[in-house]
Amino acid sequence: MTNPVHPFRKYVVSTAIVTSLALTPLVGSSVSAQSNAPSDNGSSVQVSESNLLTIGDRGQAVSSLQSELASHGYYNYNVDGVYGPITKSAVASFQSSQGLAVDGIAGPNTKSALSSGSASASTSSEQETVTTGTSASVSTSGSAADSEIVAAAENLVGIPYEYGGTTRAALDSSGFINETFEQVGKDVERTHSGIWAANGTHVSSPSVGDVVFFEGTYDTAGASHSGIYIGDNKMIHAGSSGVEVSNFGLDYWQNHYIGAKSIQ
What is the 3-state secondary structure (H, E, C) of 63-114? Predict the structure, then answer.
Protein backbone atom coordinates (compact mmCIF):
# COMPACT_ATOMS: atom_id res chain seq x y z
CA MET A 1 0.00 0.00 0.00
CA THR A 2 2.81 2.43 0.73
CA ASN A 3 4.87 1.81 -2.42
CA PRO A 4 2.56 3.72 -4.81
CA VAL A 5 2.43 6.70 -2.44
CA HIS A 6 6.14 7.55 -2.45
CA PRO A 7 6.50 7.90 -6.24
CA PHE A 8 3.44 10.13 -6.28
CA ARG A 9 4.88 12.40 -3.56
CA LYS A 10 8.18 12.59 -5.37
CA TYR A 11 6.35 13.59 -8.51
CA VAL A 12 4.49 16.39 -6.75
CA VAL A 13 7.64 17.82 -5.16
CA SER A 14 9.49 17.59 -8.45
CA THR A 15 6.68 19.36 -10.25
CA ALA A 16 6.59 22.13 -7.63
CA ILE A 17 10.32 22.71 -8.02
CA VAL A 18 10.09 22.80 -11.81
CA THR A 19 7.13 25.18 -11.64
CA SER A 20 8.95 27.44 -9.20
CA LEU A 21 12.04 27.54 -11.41
CA ALA A 22 9.97 28.22 -14.47
CA LEU A 23 8.13 31.11 -12.89
CA THR A 24 11.10 32.74 -11.17
CA PRO A 25 12.02 35.07 -14.07
CA LEU A 26 8.40 36.20 -14.32
CA VAL A 27 7.73 37.18 -10.72
CA GLY A 28 11.10 37.87 -9.10
CA SER A 29 11.31 41.05 -7.07
CA SER A 30 7.96 42.45 -8.19
CA VAL A 31 5.89 40.22 -5.94
CA SER A 32 6.12 42.41 -2.84
CA ALA A 33 5.54 45.54 -4.87
CA GLN A 34 2.40 44.11 -6.43
CA SER A 35 1.01 43.27 -3.00
CA ASN A 36 1.04 47.02 -2.20
CA ALA A 37 -0.24 48.21 -5.53
CA PRO A 38 -4.07 47.86 -5.29
CA SER A 39 -4.59 50.60 -2.68
CA ASP A 40 -2.97 53.21 -4.95
CA ASN A 41 -3.70 51.72 -8.35
CA GLY A 42 -7.46 51.41 -8.03
CA SER A 43 -7.66 48.70 -10.71
CA SER A 44 -6.55 45.20 -11.50
CA VAL A 45 -3.52 46.39 -13.45
CA GLN A 46 -0.32 45.07 -11.91
CA VAL A 47 2.29 47.68 -11.05
CA SER A 48 5.98 46.95 -11.38
CA GLU A 49 8.36 47.71 -8.53
CA SER A 50 9.85 50.68 -10.39
CA ASN A 51 6.45 52.42 -10.37
CA LEU A 52 6.19 52.46 -6.58
CA LEU A 53 8.03 54.59 -4.05
CA THR A 54 7.78 53.64 -0.39
CA ILE A 55 9.62 53.55 2.96
CA GLY A 56 13.31 52.72 2.51
CA ASP A 57 13.61 53.92 -1.10
CA ARG A 58 16.34 56.43 -1.96
CA GLY A 59 17.56 58.38 -4.96
CA GLN A 60 16.52 60.95 -7.55
CA ALA A 61 12.98 59.60 -7.88
CA VAL A 62 12.40 60.22 -4.16
CA SER A 63 13.96 63.70 -4.42
CA SER A 64 11.59 64.53 -7.29
CA LEU A 65 8.65 63.27 -5.24
CA GLN A 66 9.68 65.39 -2.25
CA SER A 67 10.05 68.45 -4.50
CA GLU A 68 6.57 67.97 -5.93
CA LEU A 69 5.10 67.50 -2.47
CA ALA A 70 6.90 70.67 -1.36
CA SER A 71 5.51 72.63 -4.31
CA HIS A 72 2.00 71.74 -3.16
CA GLY A 73 2.76 72.57 0.48
CA TYR A 74 2.83 69.04 1.88
CA TYR A 75 6.58 68.71 2.51
CA ASN A 76 8.44 71.41 4.43
CA TYR A 77 11.79 69.72 4.99
CA ASN A 78 15.11 69.20 3.24
CA VAL A 79 14.89 67.39 -0.11
CA ASP A 80 17.29 64.56 0.69
CA GLY A 81 16.14 61.68 -1.52
CA VAL A 82 15.33 59.49 1.49
CA TYR A 83 11.81 58.02 1.70
CA GLY A 84 11.38 57.95 5.47
CA PRO A 85 8.45 58.47 7.86
CA ILE A 86 8.23 62.20 7.12
CA THR A 87 7.94 61.64 3.36
CA LYS A 88 5.42 58.85 3.92
CA SER A 89 3.33 61.16 6.11
CA ALA A 90 3.46 63.89 3.46
CA VAL A 91 2.34 61.43 0.77
CA ALA A 92 -0.51 60.21 2.98
CA SER A 93 -1.67 63.79 3.63
CA PHE A 94 -1.64 64.52 -0.09
CA GLN A 95 -3.54 61.31 -0.88
CA SER A 96 -6.19 62.20 1.69
CA SER A 97 -6.67 65.69 0.25
CA GLN A 98 -7.06 64.30 -3.28
CA GLY A 99 -9.54 61.57 -2.38
CA LEU A 100 -7.04 58.78 -3.09
CA ALA A 101 -6.57 55.60 -1.07
CA VAL A 102 -4.34 56.62 1.85
CA ASP A 103 -1.38 54.27 2.33
CA GLY A 104 1.65 56.56 2.21
CA ILE A 105 2.95 54.78 -0.91
CA ALA A 106 3.58 56.87 -4.02
CA GLY A 107 2.14 54.82 -6.87
CA PRO A 108 0.83 55.78 -10.35
CA ASN A 109 -2.35 57.55 -9.18
CA THR A 110 -0.53 59.57 -6.52
CA LYS A 111 2.23 60.60 -8.94
CA SER A 112 -0.33 61.52 -11.58
CA ALA A 113 -2.26 63.68 -9.13
CA LEU A 114 0.95 65.40 -8.02
CA SER A 115 2.00 66.24 -11.56
CA SER A 116 -1.44 67.50 -12.62
CA GLY A 117 -2.17 71.19 -12.40
CA SER A 118 -5.42 70.54 -10.56
CA ALA A 119 -3.86 69.14 -7.36
CA SER A 120 -5.01 71.16 -4.36
CA ALA A 121 -2.44 72.78 -2.11
CA SER A 122 -2.15 72.01 1.57
CA THR A 123 -3.92 74.45 3.87
CA SER A 124 -2.52 72.98 7.07
CA SER A 125 -0.15 74.94 9.30
CA GLU A 126 3.39 73.80 9.97
CA GLN A 127 2.58 73.91 13.68
CA GLU A 128 0.61 71.19 15.41
CA THR A 129 -0.40 70.78 19.04
CA VAL A 130 -0.77 67.31 20.51
CA THR A 131 -3.00 66.82 23.54
CA THR A 132 -2.46 63.13 24.16
CA GLY A 133 -1.33 61.93 27.58
CA THR A 134 0.45 64.72 29.42
CA SER A 135 -0.46 67.21 26.69
CA ALA A 136 3.09 67.84 25.53
CA SER A 137 3.03 70.38 22.70
CA VAL A 138 5.06 69.54 19.62
CA SER A 139 6.05 71.41 16.49
CA THR A 140 6.29 69.83 13.05
CA SER A 141 8.51 72.56 11.60
CA GLY A 142 12.21 71.96 11.12
CA SER A 143 15.38 73.41 9.62
CA ALA A 144 17.74 71.75 7.15
CA ALA A 145 19.99 70.74 10.07
CA ASP A 146 17.03 69.17 11.85
CA SER A 147 16.18 67.24 8.70
CA GLU A 148 19.74 65.90 8.55
CA ILE A 149 19.35 64.58 12.09
CA VAL A 150 16.09 62.86 11.13
CA ALA A 151 17.67 61.37 8.00
CA ALA A 152 20.56 60.07 10.12
CA ALA A 153 18.10 58.46 12.53
CA GLU A 154 16.12 56.94 9.66
CA ASN A 155 19.32 55.35 8.36
CA LEU A 156 19.50 53.30 11.55
CA VAL A 157 15.94 51.93 11.55
CA GLY A 158 15.99 48.13 11.65
CA ILE A 159 19.30 47.74 13.51
CA PRO A 160 18.80 45.19 16.33
CA TYR A 161 18.92 46.09 20.02
CA GLU A 162 21.75 44.95 22.26
CA TYR A 163 22.54 46.22 25.74
CA GLY A 164 25.79 48.18 25.52
CA GLY A 165 25.63 48.24 21.71
CA THR A 166 27.37 51.21 20.12
CA THR A 167 27.85 50.15 16.49
CA ARG A 168 25.61 49.50 13.50
CA ALA A 169 25.82 45.80 14.25
CA ALA A 170 23.61 46.44 17.31
CA LEU A 171 22.63 49.47 19.37
CA ASP A 172 21.21 50.15 22.79
CA SER A 173 18.92 53.13 23.36
CA SER A 174 21.61 55.71 24.13
CA GLY A 175 23.95 54.11 21.60
CA PHE A 176 21.34 54.94 18.96
CA ILE A 177 21.35 58.61 19.97
CA ASN A 178 25.16 58.65 19.89
CA GLU A 179 25.30 57.02 16.45
CA THR A 180 22.66 59.40 15.06
CA PHE A 181 24.59 62.50 16.08
CA GLU A 182 27.92 61.00 15.06
CA GLN A 183 26.53 60.82 11.50
CA VAL A 184 25.98 64.59 11.52
CA GLY A 185 29.35 65.35 13.11
CA LYS A 186 28.30 65.95 16.71
CA ASP A 187 29.51 64.30 19.91
CA VAL A 188 27.11 63.74 22.80
CA GLU A 189 27.36 62.06 26.19
CA ARG A 190 27.10 58.26 26.27
CA THR A 191 24.06 58.05 28.57
CA HIS A 192 20.57 59.53 28.43
CA SER A 193 21.09 61.28 31.77
CA GLY A 194 24.40 62.66 30.53
CA ILE A 195 22.83 64.06 27.36
CA TRP A 196 19.93 65.50 29.37
CA ALA A 197 22.37 67.25 31.70
CA ALA A 198 25.16 68.37 29.38
CA ASN A 199 24.23 68.51 25.68
CA GLY A 200 22.10 70.92 23.69
CA THR A 201 19.47 73.38 24.82
CA HIS A 202 16.24 72.65 26.66
CA VAL A 203 13.15 73.59 24.62
CA SER A 204 9.57 74.03 25.80
CA SER A 205 8.25 71.68 23.11
CA PRO A 206 9.97 69.31 20.67
CA SER A 207 10.47 70.18 17.02
CA VAL A 208 11.60 67.89 14.21
CA GLY A 209 15.13 66.69 14.94
CA ASP A 210 14.99 67.37 18.69
CA VAL A 211 15.73 64.70 21.30
CA VAL A 212 12.77 63.76 23.51
CA PHE A 213 13.56 62.37 26.97
CA PHE A 214 11.78 60.00 29.34
CA GLU A 215 12.26 58.90 32.94
CA GLY A 216 11.16 55.82 34.84
CA THR A 217 11.42 53.49 31.85
CA TYR A 218 14.15 51.57 33.70
CA ASP A 219 15.02 51.19 37.36
CA THR A 220 17.28 54.23 37.37
CA ALA A 221 16.95 57.84 38.49
CA GLY A 222 16.61 60.68 36.01
CA ALA A 223 16.48 60.44 32.23
CA SER A 224 16.48 56.76 31.27
CA HIS A 225 15.46 56.77 27.61
CA SER A 226 15.34 59.12 24.64
CA GLY A 227 14.44 59.28 20.97
CA ILE A 228 14.60 61.56 17.94
CA TYR A 229 11.35 63.41 17.25
CA ILE A 230 10.55 63.20 13.51
CA GLY A 231 7.25 65.03 13.27
CA ASP A 232 3.68 63.79 12.86
CA ASN A 233 3.72 62.85 16.57
CA LYS A 234 6.32 60.12 15.95
CA MET A 235 9.84 59.42 17.13
CA ILE A 236 12.68 57.06 16.25
CA HIS A 237 14.29 55.24 19.15
CA ALA A 238 15.97 51.96 20.03
CA GLY A 239 13.35 49.76 21.65
CA SER A 240 13.74 46.21 22.88
CA SER A 241 13.27 44.88 19.36
CA GLY A 242 15.67 47.33 17.72
CA VAL A 243 15.65 50.80 16.19
CA GLU A 244 12.09 51.63 15.20
CA VAL A 245 9.52 54.35 14.63
CA SER A 246 7.08 54.73 17.53
CA ASN A 247 4.06 56.85 18.37
CA PHE A 248 5.25 59.61 20.68
CA GLY A 249 1.65 60.31 21.68
CA LEU A 250 1.02 56.94 23.31
CA ASP A 251 0.05 57.19 26.98
CA TYR A 252 3.13 55.21 28.01
CA TRP A 253 5.55 57.70 26.49
CA GLN A 254 3.57 60.76 27.53
CA ASN A 255 3.37 59.53 31.12
CA HIS A 256 7.17 59.16 31.25
CA TYR A 257 8.02 62.27 29.19
CA ILE A 258 10.20 64.85 30.96
CA GLY A 259 11.16 67.24 28.17
CA ALA A 260 13.10 67.84 24.97
CA LYS A 261 16.42 69.32 23.89
CA SER A 262 17.66 70.82 20.65
CA ILE A 263 21.19 69.66 19.84
CA GLN A 264 22.67 71.70 16.98
Answer: HHHHHHHHHCCCCCCCCCCECCHHHHHHHHHHHHHHCCCCCCCECHHHHHHH
